[in-house]
Amino acid sequence: MRKSLLSAVAVAALMLPGTAFAQSGGTIKIGILVALEGAFATGGADGVRNVELALKQVNHTIAGKKIETVVAPTDTKPDTTIRMARKLIEQDKVDIIIGPLSGSEGIAMRDFAKTIPDKVVINGISGALETTWVDPAPNFYRFNLDGSQWGYGLGSYVVKTKGWKKVATIAADYSFGYTNFMGFAVDYCKSGGDIVQRFWQPLGQSDFGGIIAQLPDNVDAIYLGLGGTDAINFLNQYQQAGEKTRLIGGTIMADQTVLTARGRAKDALKGTPTSGPFAADNKDPAWTSYVKLYQDGFPAAQRLPSPSLFGLGYYTATLAAIKGLEAAGGDLSNGQAKFKAALNKLELASPVGKITLNENRQATGTVFVNEVVDGPDGNMTSKMVAKTENVTQTLGMTTAQFKALGLPSRDAVDCAKLRAGG
Amino acid sequence: MSVADHAPRLDGLADQRSWSARIPLPWWIAAVVLLLLPIVANNFWLFQVMGWTFILGMIGLSLMFLAGYGGMVSLLQMTIAGMAGYMVAILGPSGAAVSLGLSWWIVLPAAFLIAAAFATICGALAVRTDGIYTIMITLAIAAAFFYFTRQNYTIFNGYSGFNLVLPPKIFGVNWRDPVAFYYLALACAALCYGAVVYLARTPFGLALQGVRDNPRRMAALGFNVTAHRVAAYALASVFASTGGILLVWQNAQIAPGTIGISAAIDVLVVAVVGGLRRPLGPFIGAFIYVILQVFSTDILGFFGFAADRFKLIIGIGFLAVVLFSPDGVLALWDRWRARAAAQKAAAVTGGGT
Amino acid sequence: MDNFLTRYPLWSLIIIVLVAAFLWLVLATWPAELVASWGRKQIFLNALLGGITLGALYFLVAAGFTLIFGLMRIVNLAHGSLFMIGGYLGYEIALASGSWLLAFPIVFIVVALIGLLMQRFIFSKMEGEELRQTLVSIALSIVFADLMLWWWGGQSYSILAPQFLQGPMQLPIVSNVNASTGAIIWLRYPSVRIWILIAAIVIGVAMWLVLNRTQLGMLIRAGVDDREMLAASGVRIQLLFLAVFGFGAGLAGVAGIIGGTIQSLSPGEDIRFLLSSLVVVIVGGMGSIVGAALGALIIGVAEQMGFVYAPTYSIVFTFLIMAAVLAFRPQGLLGARR
Q1: Chain A residues inside the 8 Å CB shell of C272
Q2: Are the C-beta atoms of residues B165 and B89 closer than 8 Å to each other?
Q3: Which pTM was predicted?
Q4: Touching check for B314 and chain C: CB below 8 Å?
Q5: Structure confidence by residue, pLDDT tens digits, B16-52
């Protein structure tokens, strides 16, 4: 009872500053929605770092208005994400949200964005196709490519350059696994490749011995769409079983999480082609200057050796927010109409090349094909071998053709049909 | 702490005063404060903080009912809440194609019934063994259901779960409007609370407490021990389901993560921190948990920690409670009041001589 | 044995037929029809061996858990955390010293010490309060998990097996016969897993011998059956408790190194191995070492077979087995009825 009283007092006390902030007109508040708990903690922290890095370039001031940031940590569960987003909007009174980080959070935020039509949400680095493809929210912007775009370009590379025309695939049995696989498969099948067998692995399945034994002998390579711990477990057991078949990696199969994992399991990846939204050794000045900015911006102990996928996503999103706000003259009145219009027609010069938005507010941009090689310090690193520019959300097809593929699922993409040109 | 040692006080049974006079003054004040809260608090506090507190409190209450009166510490309550929530999403309208889109007057009873049936089956499995086994078996069942929902796409829509699960517009009210939702959650919580207080004094509730304290004697007296325990699971499912359905409406979504293992353990933390002895405990625990969770950045920042150490704070807090005040913070309050009363009494007698 | 045959002729027949069919599946060359419906024999054998070796790992984790429960009635839900700590420490030691084998004794001692501290300063203070002990162990597991995440981060760690255990070895089991040449292809299987299986069998047999053939084992068995009586008969039961808790914890730590070698370590593995231990001991029977071995074998093989032949729901199978055991034999397959 007395507790209830106390809580009522606490309510009043905590409520007041919220209202006070809303009235101060000279600042723009940006909420950073980012996973800081669990396995994504390292990537999430890099995201926050990159938002600050981007804002530092404009001295935290745009069109005469001061920029303030509020960090809202999530644990990659969509319900936590919605809770924290609501805190940002209702308690911290932010004007713009940058985030979230992972796929199912993105879909949840798409629907949350519809309930706050006067605010803008700019995606952090979440990559689910559905976020901007199925019933998109008019105020949700994504300046990074989605999971299926990340897989695009790899298929034609392995067929045309490597000549691997028959693969079996092993991928994670959840939405990102399907989506990333779809991007690979569309391009691969169209280029004339054949997928002879598909295996879907439940998340957190840590013993792959049975699957490794099932892999067909007569294939040119095996596509692996696993990530994180599952990827490490697979590679570890693949080596222990003495298997030698060549590998093709999905985007998170050979990302920094796997390449910087402790132990020798990742050595099995040597020579594996993979694709994703950036290349660590890209020679493009836009990229090299960004990496330098990042490395100079923080002491070595407080950052990663080079920006991560997550960091890049949040950096690009913040960059888009800055450019948009500049174009709108910092004017967020009238439901942020000017800001939204500016974002819609933005041509963003990002560290990974030009990015434009389509009618779903989804980015069109460049996908890089990398190959895993030995790094200078005994670690593995990746080397850029090809890139595909202007990859659209529909993977180069018309909207109708892409719709006909269906949403990513266990059996999406009819390879034979695509190979025949359908 | 063995729950069995502390029978909730059964005073008031013989009390002949009118019901309004029996309720002590602080309760009236609490009721007025809670009813008038929307005048002072902003939407975030109403919808998010208080709404979530009531929801978590109800799920914790179902655990408190089982543990406090039945002596069965079940980690299943979040799973049962999730089952009801899932049913609302599956049978009713949502953003996913799997949903059937039936109208609410079919969906809600069905959700309660299915969750109750599920709770009864799981309860029947869990009561095959007793004592400390319960916690292990329910944890394992909770994990099984979590994995199943994550893998099943035809019914539970797998990893992605359901989005855009919105409450129906009953009586023309948008129940997701913060004030409406606040009152809805408050009313449900009050009803559940009242139901538990009432149930504890019914013949069934007394028999259940008897089963908790001495199952053998109760069996000898002709009570069906197993039936009482299973029935307790079924009854507790109503409170958990109410919480679960409100939770889905509040978040507008449900996914396997909502009912994961850490969520199941969080419910236990909430109930234990608040106190497993009294129905009020889980609500107090839920309030503390929600405040810590929502303001973790601000609180941890204040103590110079990074925001990602939230779990550490929860863990240490929980550890401190079970080590030093096993009956939760409510027991601390009791102790403090008892000491104050003793001091007062001492002062009075001291003054008299 | 004869007794069983005469008493349950039907069951005996079924068991004999099943064992024969199983042996045939393992040893014979599969005819084409079987291959067509079940896939290659190699797949079956791999799933089977994978299950058995996984079962060996589960056994090492669950053995300590079941021993601690059997003697002290402590459901130590922080057991998975001890597994993880052991794994991480093993990684650090193996990396620093370059010796995988050296990690085992050190990790055993360090994790056993952690277990001793837990028992001495926490669990022994609340003896008899089973629920409170369990709650404390949950709290400890939350704290440990976050401390480990803080220190070791969210990355995956895999421990490199030493040179002589790397790669596959040839087993004397026919995998396939080359159709054109008629040459026999022997089964190749990761050698590290075979050696871990052997090690687990050795440890299991040693535990059984200690429990059943020594003075110490007699005391422990007496404690499992009737703790009060044992204490009353003048045995320094607290010392016995400490020894068993330390041994169980150390065993979990050692299992962590093995888990980190054949799988990998990352946040969340603690819960996974805790769950598998729970299921194993519920199926096998609480407090029974042989039960833990049987349960681990069943769960490991079921998991791998399910994974190969019905991957979508493989994770759920183990829990179905648990539910079935609970429904028909709640004390577990080899558990004593209480």
Answers
A1: 204, 206
A2: yes
A3: 0.85
A4: yes
A5: 566 666 777 777 888 888 888 788 888 888 888 899 9
